[in-house]
Amino acid sequence: MTTSDTLGERLRAAVGELVRATRTANQLPANQAAALGELEREGPRTTAQLAASCRIRHQSMTSIVQQLIARGEVMSTSHPTDGRAQLLSITADGRSVIVRDRENRAGRLAHEIDTQLSEDEREALSSAVTLIERLARAERESSEKPIREQAARPPAGLDQSGGSGSRPRRRQAVIATESSRIRRKLSAVKSDQSDDVAT
Fold it and tell me: Compositionally biased, Basic and acidic residues: which spans (predicted)?
């Protein structure tokens, strides 16, 4: 195992343990908090987009969204371009819940920082947090890239202009070329026969 592998495993374990320890201060279940947080950070999303971003099955996210809507923390509106989809947005109540949970977790961490770390250690932690934020952004962009590429990809059987695929067009072009060649041959044969008759 390389140094980066070891450091990555230590970071994963430490962050995971820290998240689990502070989660007890949450008022929301983790999956509901994740959905609200995603809507608060990224803006309106469909259920499918929300499920992909939170890495939750679509069926599970549908149940989560229904609970959030029932409590008035999320609202659903018609999608402006897709009549089959609904756009989900966080409400003022949902934002208040998210802010309250974040403040509770931050307060827990602040207490531990003040009581467990020296001044020099707090400065070192500040630098480490900056690096962790950079890693988090890179990981998020990497995980969302396939989703963006899939959304930008045209439907199967269609080219970029939205018409029929290029394969049928190539087949039609081959047929047209072959037909033209046959007509030229027939014309040449007829011409030869006319010459023979004239002779």
Answer: 136-151
Q: Are 165 and 172 in contact (CB under 8 A)?
A: no
DSSP state letters, the chain: --HHHHHHHHHHHHHHHHHHHHGGG-SS-HHHHHHHHHHHHH--B-HHHHHHHHT--HHHHHHHHHHHHHTTSEEEEE-SS-TT-EEEEE-HHHHHHHHHHHHHHHHHHHHHHHHH--HHHHHHHHHHHHHHHHHHHHHHHHHHHHHHHHHHSPPTTB-TTSSB-HHHHHHHHHHHHHHHHHHHHHHHHHHHHHHHHH-
Beta bridge partners of residue 86, listed in sequence order: 78
Please provide residue 82's backbone torsions phi and psi, each rounded to the nearest 5 degrees. -125, 105
The CB density around residue 12, as the number of other CB atoms within 10 Å, is: 10
| Residue 80: Cβ within 10 Å count | 9
What value does the CA radius of gyration of the chain take, rounded to a whole number of Å? 31
Q: Kindly report, residue by residue over 58-110, the tens digit of the pLDDT.
A: 999 999 999 999 999 999 998 888 878 889 999 999 999 999 988 988 999 99
pLDDT of residue 63: 96
Nearest to 44 by CA among 72, 70, 74, 64: 74
